[in-house]
């Protein structure tokens, strides 16, 4: 298999240890994630990483895809394979197209059901991007819609704010700069992501998570700018807890 044109210093495939296609897909996703993380953290190969942000993302996408496939009656094998492999070319331009092409070759060499490879190919090709507005028609096939939703759901919610604040880009930021990063991400970068969901379960969860993100950054801003402002609004519970402690 040809090496990627950019980014990855080692394009070889990990050994599957004879445990089947999902084991190989997981190992490849782990390997490529680590290489991306080492570049971002500017660390030598195999050095301990402070936080494996890409690997955590991929695992979350797999879990989302598996649950959505089960809930919606989609092909679980195709959804899970696409989820493991969707970011294996993340360092490169058009990583969806490039990743899909490599995923096809990877799966052809495994015990993955060959008639499902085309579905994985399509799903990975179509997952790239952050938002496209609420579609009049969901992505097709259903497995492509599920990968999009599984991927984009990981961009939403309070845990995602903790995720981005744990990456290399946030390591040297002040508290004020961290708040500004969280606000920018929430109010600008993913402002339309929730409405790009294809499936109703994902849309409901996405809207709820986005509301919670907005409330979180608003609370953070309020408590930063006016630490005692909540006392002026009245906080009987806070008074009760203080008097009990005293």
Descriptive notes:
The protein is mostly helical and 246 residues long. The protein is globular, with a radius of gyration of 21 Å. The N and C termini lie far apart (69 Å). The protein contains eleven helices and no strands. The chain has helices at 21-41, 53-72, 76-85, 95-108, 117-126, 142-153, 158-165, 175-189, 200-225, 229-233, 236-245.
CATH superfamily: Hypothetical protein af1432
CATH fold-level name = Hypothetical protein af1432
Using the coordinates above, name the CATH class. Mainly Alpha
Total strand segments:
0
Residue stretches low in confidence (pLDDT < 50, at least 5 long) are 1-6
Biggest beta sheet attributes: none
First-residue to last-residue Cα separation:
69 Å
- Helical stretch count? 11
Label the structural class.
mainly alpha
CATH architectural arrangement:
Orthogonal Bundle
Determine the oligomeric state from the structure. single chain
Beta-strand percentage range? under 5%
How are helices and strands ordered from N to C? HHHHHHHHHHH
Give the overall silhouette. globular
Count of separate structural domains: 1
Using only CA atoms, what is the Rg?
A: 21 Å
Name the helicity range. 55-70%
């Amino acid at each position: 298999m040809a090496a990627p044109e950019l980014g990855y210093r080692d394009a070889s495939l990990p050994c599957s240890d004879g445990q089947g296609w999902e084991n190989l897909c997981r190992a490849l996703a782990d390997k490529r994630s680590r290489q991306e993380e080492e570049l971002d953290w500017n660390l030598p190969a195999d050095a301990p990483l402070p936080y494996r942000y890409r690997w955590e993302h991929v695992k979350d996408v797999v879990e989302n895809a598996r649950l959505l496939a089960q809930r919606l009656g989609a092909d679980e094998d195709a959804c899970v394979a696409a989820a493991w492999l969707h970011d294996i070319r993340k360092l490169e331009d058009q990583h969806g197209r490039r990743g899909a092409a490599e995923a096809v070759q990877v799966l052809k060499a495994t015990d993955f059901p060959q008639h499902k490879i085309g579905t994985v190919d399509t799903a990975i090709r179509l997952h790239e991007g952050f938002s496209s507005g609420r579609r009049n028609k969901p992505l097709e096939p259903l497995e492509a819609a599920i990968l999009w939703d599984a991927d984009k759901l990981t961009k939403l919610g309070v845990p995602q704010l903790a995720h981005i604040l744990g990456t290399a880009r946030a390591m040297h930021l002040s508290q004020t700069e961290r708040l500004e990063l969280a606000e920018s991400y929430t109010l600008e970068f993913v402002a339309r992501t929730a409405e790009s969901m294809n499936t109703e379960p994902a849309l409901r969860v996405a809207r709820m998570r986005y509301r919670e993100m907005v409330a979180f950054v608003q609370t953070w801003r309020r408590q930063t700018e006016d630490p005692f402002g909540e006392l002026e609004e009245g906080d009987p519970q806070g008074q009760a807890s203080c008097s009990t402690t005293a």
